[in-house]
Write a structure and sequence with these properties.
2 copies of one chain form a homodimer. The first copy, chain A, has 352 residues and is α/β, with parallel strands linked by helices. The first copy, chain A, contains 12 helices and 12 strands. The longest helix of chain A has 17 residues. At the A-B interface, helix 4, helix 5, strand 2, helix 6 and helix 10 of A face helix 4, helix 5, strand 2, helix 6 and helix 10 of B. The first copy, chain A, binds a DNA duplex (16 and 16 nucleotides) through helix 2 and helix 4.
Amino acid sequence: MSTRGNPINNKPTIKDVARLCGVSTQTISRVLNKRPDVSPETRERVLEVINQLGYQPSALARSLIQQRSYTLGIIIAGLKYAGISLTLNGIAEQADQEGYSLLIKELPSFDVSDVQPVIRSLMAHQVEAIIYAAPECGNNWRNVQSQCPRPCPPMVFLKGNPYSDFSTISIDNFMGAYLATRHLLDQGCHHIAHISGPMDWWEAIEREKGWHAALEDAKLPPEDRQCALGNWSSSSGERAFYSLLESYPEVDGVFAGNDQMALSVLYVAAKKKIKIPEQLAVVGFDDLSESPYYSPSLTTIRQDLRMLGTMAVKKAIEMVNEPVVTGDSLSDTIVIKPQLIVRESSLFGRTL
Amino acid sequence: MSTRGNPINNKPTIKDVARLCGVSTQTISRVLNKRPDVSPETRERVLEVINQLGYQPSALARSLIQQRSYTLGIIIAGLKYAGISLTLNGIAEQADQEGYSLLIKELPSFDVSDVQPVIRSLMAHQVEAIIYAAPECGNNWRNVQSQCPRPCPPMVFLKGNPYSDFSTISIDNFMGAYLATRHLLDQGCHHIAHISGPMDWWEAIEREKGWHAALEDAKLPPEDRQCALGNWSSSSGERAFYSLLESYPEVDGVFAGNDQMALSVLYVAAKKKIKIPEQLAVVGFDDLSESPYYSPSLTTIRQDLRMLGTMAVKKAIEMVNEPVVTGDSLSDTIVIKPQLIVRESSLFGRTL
DNA sequence: TTGAAAGCGCTAACAT
DNA sequence: ATGTTAGCGCTTTCAA
């Protein structure tokens, strides 16, 4: 027994609406797409039936015939860490505003060697563009480039090297680190250590470079023992700072690769009765919403991760609508400037 | 001019594969769906062509004909706050494991009165179930219930009252708060204050109730001045604690509604030279990954938000596959127990 | 202003 | 073991 035409059990289709209105499905389609060539009376009757039936056109069928899905594919990693959710916030908001839906995939780790399945799954759903929001680390970006089946939808890469041969949006990590270190120098620090992120991450590398460059510019080229490795987590930051106290006991300033690791420095310092900022000034990176409330409040580098997401969506949609490109334009590379936020953890004997 | 059959410009379809193999599309379909009734040689040839063409079946077309999308709709809110991303992490992982895709919508605020457009958009994409991952506050859950067009896909609600008439998965906030307060009493506190979240949030209400109940059970029924209102943010926690110091100067223990607000208590205490835990014991709620590194490390209530996401997906898929239900089973209501994590902020004169 | 026919890419049902 | 036909829900093209 067919239940077609039974709007009680099944979701109504365009046919149900047409039958109830006594017109063809084309007419319904015209009303749905706000075409002008429908008589006002017909239009009104159709709209009424649509409303009464609670009819909702199938985005699937529409995508299939139009070859447009109005859907973006988002690839992320590390949801359990801070940061990505802010970017996602910007992405979701902008996508919604532009009438796009979001298909989201989370990678099991940051540096996945085989992303084929993820990309293919997104492509199977006809996403019009893909935003690769996992930061560049190891070969992950290049893997994506080489593994993406052609023809491949436009892609935007977030938080990595501003390569000129594809679309990227990045934060200027070098500049952020330089600002942080420069600030410590300005505060009178002469022995500035760095707790870096994993050195296969582009962001960690850039931050380390920025620190290095600022010290060199100040004629204080750093030695290896001034830099300790973390993995972004607070516990790794704790270990890194302990090793720094061993390798570089004269340290009077620390630039940590992120706020979580900086927090551990504050924690260990409190334990060891090292006075902050008097004996040790500390600067982080990220400006988490809690960092103004660390004890002492944390000087840090603010990066607008939300805007990163907003811009990514804008860029992606722009690429979708762009006439076929031959040779990417330079404007495909966007770099966002970070900002120094000065708080108590770095202010020697002064007040804010 | 048609470019059909030109696998260079257009994505290859099942027809392209069929033509190149010299068989019907049906045979290709059989291979794709791993049906047994294909000769080994044919299968092999088909697979080879598929590979060579980089052919990827259209999930859209498949969803349309099968009336199954293998897609879940996720509704979230407040990505910029901590917590939801962990749940999303659990959701994404479990969905991936079960072969489901995720269509995600973020609400502009927690308590949105008109969710129709969001639900309709998800339904237009034929999602098989919807996970409403925004915590219950105000009338948001009831609004969803009443506004959802019928027939409506199965829905799972996260972080709210365990209503028995639809599927919910919640943390036992009352128990968490009770544990926290009980612990403060055990530590010898007699003047235990509470910094609550907004009182139109179910979670805030439950936590307040748990605190209240624990004090009553200890024959110390709290007065109004012992409770201050926050909005989950650190800055609101700061204001709340200042007002508490006014209204309830004898306070010797604080149970804060979340870790961010607890952090502010530590911050203000440090400023005012209030010794923690000697003069004031503090307990938070959430167990953020940073809270072991606050100064002092924060005693808190751990809730497994990641598992919440995992269970939500399992439940949603279960409901999809469930034969038509008449009267929801009681097992639709799942409550997860939280756990007390004791750290320095509440340990009077003892060590861990 | 409206309708009929064709087809998007795929699969279910029935043939052979 | 394979092919044919029909159709998912919609829009495009063409005709009336």
